[in-house]
Amino acid sequence: MADRPCVLIVEARFYADIADQLAQGAATALEAAGFDHERIEVPGVFELPAAVRMALLSMEFHSGSHPYAGFLALGCVIRGETDHYDHVCREASRALMDLSTEYAIAFGFGVLTCETMEQAQARADIDGKNKGGEAAQACLAMMDVKRHFRLIQR
Question: Which one of the listed residues 37, 62, 66, 84 is annotated catalytic?
Fold first, then answer.
């Protein structure tokens, strides 16, 4: 249905199987709440903030397919042997937080930061911790906050 509000899911595909589980959990939650969604892929977690900002620019310039009612960032970072993990987690998280506050977007943070692949799988599993679904629920809750302040309609 074209008249339903749409949420943009931006997913980091570095761990594709984890991203698919996160996206499935998010999509199920959004559909149950009556929202459409659009998925866009980026290579890794570090690229998530840039993609969200590009979507916001497309809305500002009316060049995108439609306005988004909310945004989800999904992905996974697993600690390795170097401090790369710390930099990616910190900088991507900070940039996403900055976007959510500067632009007052309804946002769900579904980036897993795990020590092992097993931890990531347990958190992404839709029959387990379902962190993709939790991120979608957070986004939906923030849409309610925006409606409270009359920043969006529905």
Answer: 84
Its domain, for residue 131, covers 10-21+28-139
- Taking the mean position of all CA atoms in its chain, how far away is CA 72? 2
- What is the rounded distance in angstroms from the CA atom of residue 33 to the CA atom of residue 36? 9
Predicted confidence (pLDDT) per residue in 99-135, tens digit: 999 999 999 999 999 999 999 999 999 999 999 999 9
Contact 9, 22 (CB under 8 A): no
66 noted as active-site residue: no
In sequence order, the β-bridge partners of residue 78 are: 114
Q: For residue range 26-63, list pLDDT tens digits in order.
A: 999 999 999 999 999 999 999 999 999 999 999 998 87
Residue with tokens 């379902």: 130
Residue 5 lies in a domain: no
